[in-house]
Design brief:
Strand order of the largest sheet: 7-6-5-8-9-10
Helix content: 25-40%
Number of helices: 10
CATH class of the largest domain: Alpha Beta
Structural class: alpha/beta
Radius of gyration: 30 Å
Largest sheet: 6 strands, mixed
CATH superfamily of the largest domain: von Willebrand factor, type A domain
Order of helices and strands: HHEEHEHEEHEEHHEHEHEH
CATH architecture of the largest domain: 3-Layer(aba) Sandwich
Number of domains: 3
Distance between the termini: 47 Å
Shape: elongated
Length: 365
């Protein structure tokens, strides 16, 4: 019975994953990631699927399917509040899906290639691995089965075992314990540095586009790396590092100097993330408005001389704004044309997020 339940549950999960894959563009574009963004799971609304359940009722009572009814007869309700509706009901089931599953679906649907981490995997993680048996140790690690067999064998060989009263008494020499050793496992670590323009031209709609895109970038990169860190930088005419919550909620009214964010990112990498040990991803979100053309050119110079040699990728996402000039992406194209590690995308509405994610990771950098 248990095996059948497990089989049914696995079949139901496959149906749910298929439904998510089919409606993935809708989840991205409409922001239908309801509920929480926890560490491991997120609630996904799935239309048209109901959880399997038993339905109880009185088999002896009369009603539809009982008595002398014929096909085509009208079913009259009694005591109702009015005529029934004419529209089909909508069933929405919220399913908890792990971020790994979500990223796997994302990669399959967008046909994203696996990311190949660069570097020599010098960063290692340590874990304890049980690898053998020894004669001493804490009682919490006592190997009961082997201890029992040793005690039983000893009593049989010494003639103390009584089949009519099969009592096994452990002695100190019978006890054996699990032993372990510390294993160092190579691990590819990555850091994602998000930069966002929070000047007056970046309103709530623009930051919502950033939030959705950043979520999916996080999901895909975490699927490809065992260890990952995220750092957040916001800027108007000045830039500074903030925490995740502040990054998505802050709003300023000042002007824009994009180079200020690039300087903070450069210092962050130089002080904390050696390129030989870290896979580094830098993403900048802006409406493309900058204080001057010279500052935009300075950004390109910093990218060429200081940042790109250390990065897996620099991704620039320009979101549409009624107040921004939108010219920074043109400067990037002009001065960094041919740079394979520079990828740009435009997101005018939520409908563009799907294609933007595919653009950023189509090369599997």
């Amino acid at each position: 019975m248990i095996l059948q339940i497990n089989s049914d549950h696995q079949r139901f999960r496959k149906i749910v994953k298929g439904k998510i894959r089919k409606d993935l563009r809708k989840f991205l574009t409409r922001g239908e990631l309801l509920g929480r963004e926890g560490k491991k799971y997120i609630s996904i609304p799935v239309h048209g699927i109901d959880t399997p359940h038993f339905r109880y009722g009185d088999n002896e009572s009369s009603g539809v399917g009982k008595g002398d009814g014929k096909p085509g007869d009208t079913v009259d309700g009694e005591g109702g509040m009015g005529p029934g509706g004419t529209q089909e009901g909508q069933h929405i089931l919220e399913v908890d899906v792990s971020l790994d599953e979500l990223a796997e679906i994302l990669g399959e649907e967008l046909q994203l290639p696996r990311i190949k981490p660069k570097g020599k995997h010098r960063i290692t993680s340590e874990r304890d691995k049980y690898s053998g048996i020894r004669q001493s140790g804490p009682e919490s690690l006592r190997h009961f089965r082997r201890t029992f067999r040793r005690a039983l064998r000893r009593q049989i060989m010494s003639g103390l075992y009584n089949a009519d009263n099969p009592r096994i008494v452990f002695e100190r020499r019978d006890k054996v314990y699990r032993s372990w050793k510390t294993v160092r496992k190579p691990q590819s670590n990555a850091v994602i540095i998000y930069m966002m323009d929070v000047s007056g031209s970046m309103g709530d709609e623009q930051k919502e586009l950033v939030r959705l895109e950043a979520f999916w970038i996080d999901a895909w990169l975490r699927k490809n790396y065992q260890g990952i860190e995220s750092r957040y930088i916001v800027h108007d005419v000045r830039a500074g590092e903030v925490d995740r919550e502040t990054f998505f909620r802050i709003r300023e009214d000042g002007g824009t100097r994009i180079s200020s964010a690039f300087r903070v990112a450069r210092d962050l990498i130089e002080n904390h993330y050696a390129p030989t040990d870290w896979n580094i991803y830098l993403f900048h979100f802006s409406d493309g408005d900058n204080s001057s053309e010279s500052d935009s050119r300075e950004c390109c110079a910093m990218l060429t001389e200081h940042l790109l040699p250390n990065l897996n990728m620099f991704g620039y996402c320009q979101v549409a704004s009624a107040y921004g000039s939108g010219n920074f992406i043109n400067v990037v194209h002009e001065h960094l044309e041919g740079q394979e590690d520079v990828i740009t995308s435009r997101v005018n509405t939520k409908d563009d997020i799907y294609d933007s994610i595919k653009t950023f990771f189509s090369e599997g950098k």
